[in-house]
């Protein structure tokens, strides 16, 4: 079998997605996702102009060799554009392999290690009460784990709070929207939120929270310490993680479990975090982390240090990534949890998929390969529209991390 052709599709059914379709001379095709929120066209060009000409004619079963060729062979390594593009090729080749062998991808990754993939949903509200009511809704829908984000008194907007309660979509059409930020106001508010949630819902439901890169290490340490009595499943992205050593400070002060890594693109972003046991969950996922091939190696390395997986699963990761992540999740030994931010009905229609949700768990389904398809004709009705993630400023106008 040989790769005959590959094509990139940029479409916007509910939001922008970049999808790679690789076809073979035997009629089998595979899909890959390479959506990079706010920088979509750069990845599309990287694939069309630079990668596709190098993979036509290759054996699609050689997932390891093709990955090495694209990673080592580019000379310029890493970075979200490069790694998302390589990820799409890798996903598509695993999809082809599964279809050609007529088996779901998880069977090629060691088989099922569990009966389902525990996921967490996204409860959010403008204030404490609204957030709490949203948590109740998720629990009623069967979720065993819920992420809670709330508006902060005195701030007009903040990360994680959306107009629409089912789909949280931070990207907006036009130029980047501007948010404002105060770590002080946030730090005073969050412990009250989790106190209220534990009082109302008791101890069983897993509660999670995302600080979205906004604190300094000592502020994160304070937050972790103050929410210890409410025993969160994790506190995510408490600080930006470029400085991995920064996590030592947080770790010295709190037993709140820490998660990080949705923006990591190689193991090098997490090497120290893992080997010094500074985190508990790694958020790297298939699309940003260069594909299934490298992510399995990172997970094996993390397993040595008691670090579990917790793949990113926001709306900007297409159903193709979600499908791939679920096959990874159900097979990997050190699975922790999977994020599940549901897609809009338009997105689901363009990407029909075999995965399904029941009683707090997602299941990858039993279709060969990834179990996700792409309706090209329908996708063409939703052309790309430029959209950006917000930028963030402190109350005095200083640029800050969004
Ligand atoms: C999460 C993330 C997302 C990101 C988004 C950016 O935990 O799900 O933080 O909400 O902000 O994926 O494109
Ligand atoms: Mg996050």
Compact summary:
The chain is α/β, with parallel strands linked by helices. The chain is 35% helix and 18% strand. The chain starts with a strand and ends with a strand.
Description:
This protein has helices at residues 40-55, 63-73, 80-100, 128-140, 183-201, 217-226, 246-253, 271-275, 292-304, 319-331, 345-350, 376-379, and strands spanning 3-11, 17-24, 29-33, 117-125, 145-150, 172-173, 178-181, 206-210, 234-236, 258-260, 281-282, 308-309, 338-339, 356-358, 361-363, 387-388, 391-394, 399-400. The chain is α/β, with parallel strands linked by helices. The strands form four sheets. Strands 4, 5, 8, 9, 10, 11, 12, 13, 14 and 15 form a ten-stranded mixed β-sheet that branches. It has a three-stranded antiparallel β-sheet with strand order 1-2-3. Helix 6 runs parallel beside helix 7 (246-253). The radius of gyration is 20 Å and the shape is globular. The N and C termini lie far apart (45 Å). The structure holds D-gluconic acid and magnesium ion. Magnesium ion binds at residues 210, 212, 236-237, 262.
Secondary-structure blueprint:
Blueprint: E1 3-11, E2 17-24, E3 29-33, H1 40-55, H2 63-73, H3 80-100, E4 117-125, H4 128-140, E5 145-150, E6 172-173, E7 178-181, H5 183-201, E8 206-210, H6 217-226, E9 234-236, H7 246-253, E10 258-260, H8 271-275, E11 281-282, H9 292-304, E12 308-309, H10 319-331, E13 338-339, H11 345-350, E14 356-358, E15 361-363, H12 376-379, E16 387-388, E17 391-394, E18 399-400
Parallel strand pairs: 4-5, 4-13, 5-8, 7-17, 8-9, 9-10, 10-11, 11-12
Antiparallel strand pairs: 1-2, 2-3, 4-15, 6-16, 14-15, 17-18
The structure holds D-gluconic acid and magnesium ion (MG).
